[in-house]
Amino acid sequence: MGATDSKAKPVDVAVENVGGIDTTDVSFSAGVTILTGRNATNRTSLLQAIMAGLGSDNVSLKGDADEGRVELTVGDETYARTLTRQNGTVVTSGDPYLEEAEIADLFVFLLESNEARRAVERTENLRELIMRPVDTAAIESEIDQLQAERDDIEERLDDLQSLRTTLPELEERRQDLEAEIEDKREELADKKAQIDDADQDVGTTRDQKAELEDALESFREARSDLEDVRYNLDSERESIGALESEIEEVETELAELPEEVSDDVSEVEDHIDRLRDQRQTLDSTVNELQKVIQFNEEMLEGTSSDVVAALRGEDDAEELTERLVDDQVVCWTCGSEVDQSDVETTLDRIRDLRQSKLSERQDLQSEIDDLKTEKATYQEQQRQRSQLEDRRRRAESELSQRRERVEGLEGDRNRLEDRIDDLEGEVNDLQDETQSDLLDLHREANELEFEISRRQDDLDDVSEEIERIESELDRRGDLQDEREELQDRIEDLRTRIDRIETEAVEQFNEHMESVLEMLGYENLERIWIERKQERVKEGRRRVEKSVFDLHVVRSTEDGTTYEDSIDHLSESEREVTGLIFALAGYLTHDVYETCPFLLLDSIEAIDSDRIARLVDYVSEYAEYVVVALLEEDAQALDDTYQRVTEV
């Protein structure tokens, strides 16, 4: 829903058990509404209730209640939220005004705990906050995907380059094989001619010649079988050599992996469990601190009925409530009177302690995430070792089988050699000296035919490999074009992110300058954000990231300007700077177009005249401005503004 949808519509808020509120109903209309009164009068609790109705989950439930409820009515539309305490946390449900309240939490609900205001005080990198409303994550995800595609293409191009270097050797090998085959064929033709001549010279009977032909045929078959066995032996030995090399390679890869990482995995898991226990302890501490904070806030606001009843004795509850919100309050631990400011100071220290514990929890979570990555690395090493050991087992098994086949082939070869010797003797018995020469010619012709056949097989293999490589190389141009196209798209997306970030920073700087000029601080000349690239830690790696640094330019009484850091500013100046930054986000991202509300609280660091100018300024954008102020600060604001004095 946008601001224009709610224009001039009245707003009603019905609250039950939120913050320090038992139950209340508050109404206001479009424009500026001032929640005024002394401290501890549930102004912040009412702002939290409005936040809940709008969609925020950053809302506290009354300390003595297990369930709370908010109904926010804008015009004729009512939006209901329910808060339920479950396992020490508050769970929200219902139908809020905003479908998504993340940006409103950041730039609309500007209470003391607002993330944008606090980030400035803690001098954090502001890039994530500034860019959170902009969907750069989708662009960055697309960049990662395109980079993966580009890397795959580059790997294929590298493979093609390697293939290209093998082409000259393959071409030379093909030419050598063709020349060898031609030479062998010529040699075979000569042998066949010699055999024909020898056949004509042999003076034997037809039966003798037939017997001799049979013996020669058997001899040729045996020679052919022997050559097949020898070829298979060579192939098996080549395979054995390849398997031995593969096993050696696997052994090398295994040696590079840790011997046994299961203990490391167990150790990391134990460490993670210990850290999770610490985190759980911190969660309990944070919850207890929140209960203490909430209890004390309720006591300051005079809304804890159980404690009021216990302390009042014969006093009227209403009179005691007045005492609790006076400058002097009754200590609800010892019963003595103490300054309210002392209680609030102590409460601030407890809030700081809770924030410190939250930061400690974030550090623990970061360490847990790192350990999960380490565990995943160990598990990946386990997986690699398992795969390598399986590969080694398969190779060793195949190696054993091939060695057995070699033994069998060697036995076949020996038997064939013996048979050939026997056949050669038989043929020798069947022929005279001329016929013995004929036997030699047949044997030589048989060997030539076998060699031609083997070389022809090799030639076919080489030719197929050349054709395959040339076919792959034909795609090289297409792959290069595809790679360039992907690189252009990556650069375009990076440029788009750069442009978005640059424009966002420029708009932030413009709005911060406008707000600062409107407030008119004499010693704060300028507040501006610098966008730069730095190598930052991301998990276990360091990557190039955009960093947004906040700078402050101050001036002296004589007009000299100099740059200062946030750390050197006073507490009130840091509060002002954080508020200016948060308002700049509200204006830069046009948040008022989707959420017509703006809630302001804890702005006492600004004097009343400047508060008046600030409220006038933001009221030009937000349709509903709800601001919590002390009575003395509220007096400086326009009398026509609506005022809520009782919650």
From TrEMBL:
<feature type="coiled-coil region">
    <location>
        <begin position="136"/>
        <end position="292"/>
    </location>
</feature>
<dbReference type="InterPro" id="IPR027417">
    <property type="entry name" value="P-loop_NTPase"/>
</dbReference>
<dbReference type="InterPro" id="IPR038729">
    <property type="entry name" value="Rad50/SbcC_AAA"/>
</dbReference>
<dbReference type="GO" id="GO:0006302">
    <property type="term" value="P:double-strand break repair"/>
</dbReference>
<comment type="similarity">
    <text>Belongs to the Sph1/Sph2 family.</text>
</comment>
<dbReference type="Pfam" id="PF13476">
    <property type="entry name" value="AAA_23"/>
</dbReference>
<feature type="region of interest" description="Disordered">
    <location>
        <begin position="375"/>
        <end position="410"/>
    </location>
</feature>
<feature type="domain" description="Rad50/SbcC-type AAA">
    <location>
        <begin position="15"/>
        <end position="254"/>
    </location>
</feature>
<dbReference type="GO" id="GO:0016887">
    <property type="term" value="F:ATP hydrolysis activity"/>
</dbReference>
<protein>
    <submittedName>
        <fullName>Chromosome segregation protein SMC</fullName>
    </submittedName>
</protein>
<keyword id="KW-0175">Coiled coil</keyword>
